[in-house]
Amino acid sequence: MANEEEIDIDLQHYLDILLRRRWIVLAFATITVLSTALVVFTQRPQYQAKALLLIEKERSSGRMMGDGVTVEATADDYYQTQYMLLKSDSLLESVHKRLGLERHEDFAEPSGFAKLKKAVNIAPVRRSRLVHVEAVSHDAALAARVANGVAEGFVRQNLENQLFISKEILEALEVDARSSEGRRLQEGLPAVVNNPLVQNLKAEHAKLQAQVADMGKRYTEKHPAMLSFKSNMTALQMQIQAETDRIVQSLKTELSGQLKGNNVRVVDLAKEPKGPFKPRKARALAIAIIMGCLGGFLLAMLVETLDQSIRVQEDVENKLGQAFLGLIPFLQMPDKSSEYQTLLTQEPSLTSEAFRNLRTMVDFAEVSDKDKSLIVTSSVQEEGKSYVVTNLAVAFSQLGERVLLIDGDFRRPKLHRNFRLHSKKGLSDFLAIGKDVSELGELVQGTDVPGLKVLVCGTRPPNPSELLNTPRLGAALAWARDQFDRILVDCPPMFPIHDTLLWGRNIRGAVFVTRYGKTRVQLIKDACARLASSGGKVLGVVTNAAKPGGLTYAGYGYYYRQYYDAYQSGPAEIQNV
Fold first, then answer.
1. What is the overall mean pLDDT for the chain?
2. Which of 160, 219, 346, 472 is buried most deeply by CB count within 10 Å?
3. Residue 492's closest CA among 358, 336, 404, 385?
């Protein structure tokens, strides 16, 4: 069960990142798809034609040629050899020359042969003796011509390779045997020279020739003995010639059989392709969409990893190590004086519910403290601390508590504008020249919110740090604790000044405000550590100005709207929620 829960949390975490960084994913995917579309729709189409060859092995493991040389035909690498021969330079060069490809743009010089070699591909059909000869060109008809040229050229080349050992034999067989030169070539064939019968006849002929030469010393040419020997020599010569003719005819018959037994043939000639081979527009766009979304998600994960700002509860707890008090939604307010009006209206809203939730979380954080006073601060300016403390004070007053809201930011006071109060006199005046804490009663101003009063800054002092470092500040806060149930102080940011540290000496609890996706984690950590060093205690962190995008905020808003829609419909519907 624990493992399943961890998996669910991880999936939700990644989905949350995907939703929050959806614009990064969408932008990356859009750029990828548009770039791919620009390439595939402007790219010149290419066509691919395929011819099909059948390559059979030789019938015997080897073939003995007439001169005693054996050609191996069933070695394990036989087919690999044939595939290499199909793309051999000699074959492609002959095809390039025979088809006159130098006249065509795709295979014109320079590097015409190299272009042809790149355009031709050999694709064996698995578990068969078939092989595709593929050719690619911008011209569909030319692609078919090239594929057929390579296939037919290979068939011719294969036949020549089978007979290349017998070229001299073929030349001898084709000469005129009646001429002396033809007779000499035929008698010099290895099959004739090595024939035992011919060898015996030639030996007998040589013996008679020697005897005739010896008798020529004693007898004349017309002597009966000489005529008899010469007659025997003529008979032997005719037998040698007859046996030579028989051997030559046998060779012709053997080679004729080999000619008819070519083991390579074209099964299907390439046809002119009907459509382009490249670019495959639909496939390219589909891959672009997939890769764009995947790349966008990876980019979003990278941005999320590099992003050191605070956004959701997990960021506060994991990156800062602080308690998470709440998420305040972003609210576009045309009038600053209406910052807390959402809490006063009867209409339910996500903003008012967020501040009531924050009020509850602060109560839980202070459950062990009798002192119900706290300061609200942030790391830097423009994080919305005055907006948060204003609405938090209104939310506490709606519980019937007597709430005093103090403007502790003497450098940039805002609370008098939020509640439309005068700022002639305030806390700074008491800290500067006050004599008795009872004077504070005259400085505290009421608001349009029942139970909520505000102690404004008053005259903006030139030396805020000196005023906050006087004993009057502690006396003023002691008076306020006697008069009110809860005290909230709007303090200045922690950086670059140290006024909040002086407030921290007198008020221990602090609520830290950070703006959604703005302030860096390290800066917030430094601010919290700085506050703790002065004796303050960070009750927790509230994230202000949260924008919809992830599961955390979006889901919270969904369930909130679902509940209030049911509430407005009636009690029966609420029971079903």
1. 82
2. 472
3. 385
| The pLDDT value given to residue 124 | 92
CA torsion sign for 510, 343, 383, 522 is positive
- Distance separating alpha carbons of residues 31 and 500, to the nearest angstrom: 48
CA angle 225, 230, 231 (to 5 degrees): 95
Residues 270-296 have a mean pLDDT of 91
Split at pLDDT 50, 70, 90, the class of 110 is confident
Q: How does DSSP classify residue 117? A: H
Q: Residues 339, 346: contact at Cβ < 8 Å?
A: no
Q: At what angle do helices 89-98 and 112-119 cross, to 10 degrees?
A: 110
**CB within 8 Å of 372: residues ≥ 6 apart:** 366, 485, 486, 487
Torsion sign across C-alpha atoms 394, 396, 398, 404: negative
- Residue 183 reports pLDDT greater than 80: no
- The stretch 402-416 carries a mean pLDDT of 94
pLDDT above 60 (res 499): yes
DSSP per-residue string spanning 44-103:
PPBEEEEEEEEEPPPSSSEEE-TTS-EEE---TTHHHHHHHHHT-HHHHHHHHHHTTGGG
CA distance 117 to 302: 43
Phi and psi, residue 356, nearest 5°: -65, -35
24: confidence class by pLDDT, cuts 50, 70, 90: very high
Query: Which residue segment(s) compose the domain that 494 sits in?
Result: 316-546
> Residue 558: its pLDDT value, please?
46
Amino acid at site 177:
A
Nearest to 457 by CA among 495, 423, 501: 423
Of the residues 258, 289, 306, which one is the last residue of a structural domain? Answer: 258
User: In total, how many domains does the chain have?
Assistant: 2
**Which has more confidence, 199 or 336?**
199
User: By C-alpha distance, which of 97, 139, 90 is closest to 119?
Assistant: 139
Q: How many CB atoms lie within 10 A of CB 88?
A: 13
Nearest to 488 by CA among 379, 327, 372, 566: 372
The reply to whether 359 and 221 lie within a common domain is no
pTM assigned to the model: 0.59
**Residues 357 and 231 occupy one common structural domain:** no
